[in-house]
């Protein structure tokens, strides 16, 4: 078993969020777990989503989710796991303890569709992600500091009932690259039982 080194408090949610608007960019605040004003109580656009969706019924739809960021050094990168995306199999400690310094992409795009041609999806079950947000630029034009976090499993979006996203994220607010979560110190309080996240 991998040893525990330096688990820290984090903001952790495993939840579905209904899309407030389509065809426009809308910010999502990870510390508030909510869309930014005027669609929610969030104040910082950590993730910037755009949902483009055509929905006739559950047998005929085409939906694209685009994720971008607010700051020059913000971004996201894919981390594959060897469990095929099933975190009930094998070790819980599949993602690295420390976020990398480089390799972050400023944009990702996911599409799901269904029609007379069948189904299409570029969702990959073995995808996980590490992200960097709230990045600040120093006087030399280089990265000064940022917050880091991870997404456990694929970042999914869905159609029907207006559409939404399903995300299991961890955000470390201490401006270090540490990704090791202490399950006893979730900074979100009074979560429902089904969100009592124990995976580090």
Write a structural description:
The chain has 200 residues and is an all-beta fold. It has one domain (8-185). Helices cover 0% and strands 47% of the residues. It contains no helices and 13 strands. The chain has strands at 8-18, 25-29, 34-35, 47-57, 60-68, 75-80, 108-115, 118-121, 127-137, 143-151, 156-158, 164-172, 181-186. The strands form 2 sheets. Strands 1, 6, 9, 10, 11, 12 and 13 form a 7-stranded mixed beta sheet that branches. A 6-stranded antiparallel beta sheet has the order 3-2-4-5-7-8, with no helix packed on it.
How do the helices and strands line up, and which of them pair or pack?
Elements: E1 8-18, E2 25-29, E3 34-35, E4 47-57, E5 60-68, E6 75-80, E7 108-115, E8 118-121, E9 127-137, E10 143-151, E11 156-158, E12 164-172, E13 181-186
Keywords:
single chain; about 200 residues; mainly beta; seven-stranded mixed sheet; about 0% helix; about 45% strand
The average pLDDT value, as a whole number, equals 91
Determine the N-to-C terminus distance: 13 Å
Structural domain count = 1
Tell me the Rg in angstroms. 17 Å
Beta-strand percentage range = over 45%
- Judged by helices, strands and strand pairing, the structural class is mainly beta
So what's the overall shape?
globular
- What series of H and E elements makes up the topology? EEEEEEEEEEEEE
**Mind describing the biggest β-sheet?**
7 strands, mixed
User: Are there runs of 5+ residues with pLDDT below 50, and where?
Assistant: none
> So how many helices?
0
Strand tally is: 13
Helix content range: under 10%
